[in-house]
Amino acid sequence: MGLTRLTCRQASRLQSQSLDRELTLSERLSLRMHTAVCDACTRVSRQLHFLRRALRDYPGPEQ
């Protein structure tokens, strides 16, 4: 897949997929280009990163 102009739906799908797998270089660049001009997708990206950090840092139930 070469660099493509993403729709918000495609960007959202890639943002979700990035939680489960490493995106290809072209996917990362396309997503970065999209979020550079789309405020809504930028907010979604920030929220996903916040949730990922919060879950990673959550200590879990005490044993």
Quick tags:
mainly alpha, 63 residues, 3 helices
Question: What's the layout of helices and strands?
Answer:
Layout: H1 8-17, H2 25-37, H3 39-57
Helix pairs in contact: 1-2, 1-3, 2-3
Categorize the overall geometry. Answer: elongated
Spatial separation of the terminal alpha carbons: 46 Å
Main sheet specs? none
Oligomerization = single chain
Percent range for helical residues?
A: 55-70%
Spans where pLDDT lies below 50 across 5 or more residues: none
Average pLDDT level: 90
Q: Which strand-content bin applies to the residues?
A: under 5%
Number of strands: 0
Category by helix and strand content: mainly alpha
- Strand/helix succession: HHH
Q: Number of folding domains?
A: 1
Describe this structure in words.
The protein is mainly α. It has one domain (about 10-55). It is built from 3 helices and no strands. The protein has helices at about 10-15, 25-35, 40-55. Helix 1 packs across helix 2 (about 25-35) and helix 1 (about 10-15) packs parallel to helix 3 (about 40-55). The longest helix is centred in the last third of the chain and has 19 residues, at about 40-55. The radius of gyration is 14 Å and the shape is elongated. It starts with 7 loop residues before the first helix and ends in a 6-residue tail after the last helix.
Brief overview:
The protein contains 3 helices and no strands. With 63 residues, the protein is mainly alpha-helical.
